[in-house]
Amino acid sequence: MVQNAPMGNPGNPSNAVDYDPFGAEVMADPGTAHSRLVRECPVHHFEGHGFDFYSLARYADVLDALRDIETYSSHWGQSPHRTPPHGMLSDPPQHTMFRRMVLQAFTPRVVERMEPWVERLADELVDQMEAPGTRTAELHDDFACPLPVITIARILGVPEEMKDQFKYWSDIQVAGMGQIDRSLYERNRKELEDYFIVLLNERRALRSAGKDMPEDLISALVLAAEDAPRKIEDFDMLSVLLQLLVGGNETTTSLITNCVWRLLERRELWEQVCANPALVEVAIEESLRFDAPVLGLFRTNTCPVSLHGVEIPADSKVQLLYSAADRDGSVFEDPDTFRLDRDPDFLRRRTLAFGSGIHFCLGAPLARLESRIALAALIRRMPTLELNGPTERIEPFLLYGRHRLPVRW
Length: 409
Ligand code: HEM
Fold this sequence. Notes:
Layout: H1 24-28, H2 30-40, E1 43-48, E2 51-56, H3 59-67, E3 72-73, H4 94-105, H5 108-129, E4 136-138, H6 139-144, H7 146-156, H8 163-176, H9 183-208, H10 217-227, H11 234-265, H12 267-275, H13 280-290, E5 297-301, E6 305-307, E7 310-312, E8 317-320, H14 322-325, H15 344-350, H16 364-381, E9 386-387, E10 392-393, E11 402-404, E12 406-408
Parallel strand pairs: 2-8
Antiparallel strand pairs: 1-2, 3-5, 4-12, 5-8, 6-7, 9-12, 10-11
Protoporphyrin IX containing FE binds next to helix 11 and helix 16.
């Protein structure tokens, strides 16, 4: 049943401001709303649209919660829904075992080796946008979306011609995290899993026949599973593959679109980066801080928590707002301004856009590599780039990125 979101009530510390994470105002500009939560309502209780959850906004509280895995458990999933543990969406010791398996397969060398390949891919995508006589493009569809999809498909060992199907599956999985009606999500998940099972079984058959498996992440996971301390069920293996696919696509696309959008919106910033490509790095880090592509994921508190005058009952869903934490003025000076004169090392060390602690994003080095290469290619090849009409936000309430980004040059 759809309920209306409650209005703010200054007498109630958990509802001191009018904040509806599904409402048009917050959806359009979550950063500004989160910045207000940091200042005026560090623990918010939301009940509306069929959801009931708390949100933590301040940097210190979000960081403490990310580190305190005894109190803030991932056992019931990281979405606002209560889902049973699977793969890395769990607490130790299960989480530790799966994370180790993926780490073994997804080494810094795998990412490093991708660099020249991603550079070529970015250049090819720009070549296609710049076809003779063309002066406009949809930067999301033509560049920011295919780049990570093709990259992760290649790392996993999925044929490139499957990329559109993959993107479709991946988007439905992401959208399903924030929806009440999960039927499409469940159907889609089954299709995706059936496809991954075929790829897994192909590799297992090669291995049993004593033949070489292709050099890709799926093969590496098959090998890592053989060394795991207990038998790895397909159910868990699929969860890991899904997290790699879904976790890395839309998020990286969002990082690229958000960053280019902010630079083009204040075009003097775009010109500064074109004049000084060394600014690419700070532009990416500042974009992560200012417009976190994952606004906040969820935990379930195992015991009652009392914070800033709010009692959070045990077993509540609690959203850790990375986006709000990164707008906390006690850590970042002038937090509500997108600035290129910040120290990129400080941003990299302190941003919570990739989380922190045991669930820290496994794909952070890859996401940074892809977005750095993407922005470098655009400023080098398309310095006259401009916005060419209104942009549009992606739909899931817990993510933030541009799904329409029309440009001209
Ligand atoms: C800009 C792009 C990305 C952002 C903003 C992002 C964000 C995040 C965040 C916030 C978490 C932590 C979740 C938590 O606190 O529980 C996370 C975890 C994770 N990310 Fe990313 N991610 C990005 C790209 C990627 C890529 C490219 C991949 C893989 C290819 C990936 C794979 C994962 C995995 C597997 C986890 C789970 C780690 C664990 O639970 O131990 N991510 N990501």
